[in-house]
């Protein structure tokens, strides 16, 4: 879908690379600009064959070139690449690209219709814009982390970077919007994504509900307070999610387990004083997870398991689509787009395409 679209990628670590990987797997040519030492994610944390997992998981199907942006000649090379591109994305702290002469105001002189996207923590203005932060900070300051609390009211530390991924999705969305707008108007555009803002944007329901009712936990039917929309423990100490919010699904569930008398308790509370809730807990605790998975496939009642990460590959929903696969370098990968093929894609070696890119773009521009 994006064949013929060229994107210059100045991002590192997780959010930016994830955004451009989604675009690469839609067909865009993504040229990743790396410093001499490479994307820091190459040396971060757990490694496979000497390369950081975070890098390998988020840079498939891109081209890599090494440019030392501290050197004038290399900055000039970057500008030549941009002049032959459709979009630019960067994730440095606000002000860094301006110091390098690679900010929007500078590059638009070389490419008038460029779509330029800055992916930041807190935006380019305001009292927070220069502060360093990470996913956990964005989750906290947005109000979203407060929605994940244990029984004592303590926020639960996420083990996945929700804010970073949301920021990445917003960045890829904005780049696509910019490209679409350019096709209609002939004009480029400049965009600044604040990850904190993106995460806060999903709090609309919560804020309006709190304004009207004082409730801080969002939609009451969806926050674990009713028995038909809740998480239950199984006999083998695993968990299932029951989402029988609509009457027909709850009725299907009750009739399938031969407890018709539960139907009237559809929206009753998940409180131990509620006899039906106690009975539903006992029912789920009487069978293993595998039994409930089969039950959920046969009975249309919005019942699904809580899977562990190592179970995704073999779970029918994903196995049928080949969502989890081994790429040619034997790296376990997950498709970005379930309906598109990704099996032959992998992340490039540092500077792997340097000669190709210099010959095809930089040297030609010099001529």
UniProtKB/TrEMBL annotation:
One GO molecular-function annotation for this sequence? transferase activity
Region: Disordered; residue ranges are: 342-367
UniProt keyword Transferase present: yes
* Coiled-coil features, chain-numbered ranges: none
Read off the Gene3D superfamilies from this record.
Answer: Crotonobetainyl-coa:carnitine coa-transferase, domain 1, formyl-coa transferase, domain 3
Q: Key word Signal present in the record?
A: no
Give the superkingdom in one word.
Answer: Bacteria
This protein's UniProt keywords: Transferase
Q: What is this protein called?
A: CaiB/BaiF CoA transferase family protein
What is the native source organism of this protein? Cytobacillus mangrovibacter
């Amino acid at each position: 879908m994006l064949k013929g679209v060229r994107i210059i990628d100045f991002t590192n670590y997780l959010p930016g690379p994830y955004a451009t990987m989604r675009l690469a797997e839609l067909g865009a040519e993504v040229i990743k600009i790396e410093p001499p030492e490479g994307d820091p994610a190459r040396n971060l944390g757990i490694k496979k064959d000497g390369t950081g997992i975070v890098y390998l998981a988020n840079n498939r199907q891109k081209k890599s070139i090494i440019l030392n942006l501290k050197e004038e000649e290399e900055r000039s090379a970057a500008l030549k690449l941009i002049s032959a591109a459709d979009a630019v994305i960067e994730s440095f702290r606000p002000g860094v690209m301006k110091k390098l002469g690679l900010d929007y105001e500078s590059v638009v002189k070389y490419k008038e219709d460029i779509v330029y996207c800055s992916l930041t923590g807190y935006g380019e203005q305001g009292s927070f814009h220069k502060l360093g932060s990470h996913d956990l900070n964005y989750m906290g300051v947005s109000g979203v982390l407060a929605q994940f609390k244990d029984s004592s009211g303590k926020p639960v530390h996420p083990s996945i970077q929700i804010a970073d991924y949301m920021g990445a999705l917003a960045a890829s969305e904005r780049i696509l919007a910019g490209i679409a707008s350019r096709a209609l108007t002939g004009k480029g555009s400049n965009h600044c994504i604040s990850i904190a803002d993106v995460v806060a944007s999903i709090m609309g329901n919560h804020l309006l509900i709190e304004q009207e009712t004082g409730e801080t936990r969002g939609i009451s039917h969806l926050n674990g307070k009713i028995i038909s929309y809740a998480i239950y423990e199984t006999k083998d100490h695993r968990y299932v999610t029951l989402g029988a919010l609509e009457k027909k699904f709850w009725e299907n569930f009750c009739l399938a387990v031969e407890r018709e008398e539960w139907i009237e308790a559809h929206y009753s509370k998940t409180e131990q004083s509620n006899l039906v809730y106690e009975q539903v807990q006992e029912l789920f605790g009487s069978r293993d997870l595998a039994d409930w998975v089969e039950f959920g496939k046969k009975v249309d009642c919005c019942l699904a398991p809580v899977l562990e990460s190592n179970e995704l590959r073999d779970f029918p929903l994903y196995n049928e689509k080949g969502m989890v696969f081994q790429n040619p370098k034997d790296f376990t990968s997950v498709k970005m787009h379930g309906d598109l093929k990704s099996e032959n894609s992998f992340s490039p070696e540092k500077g792997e395409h340097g000669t190709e890119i210099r010959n095809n773009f930089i040297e030609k521009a010099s001529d």
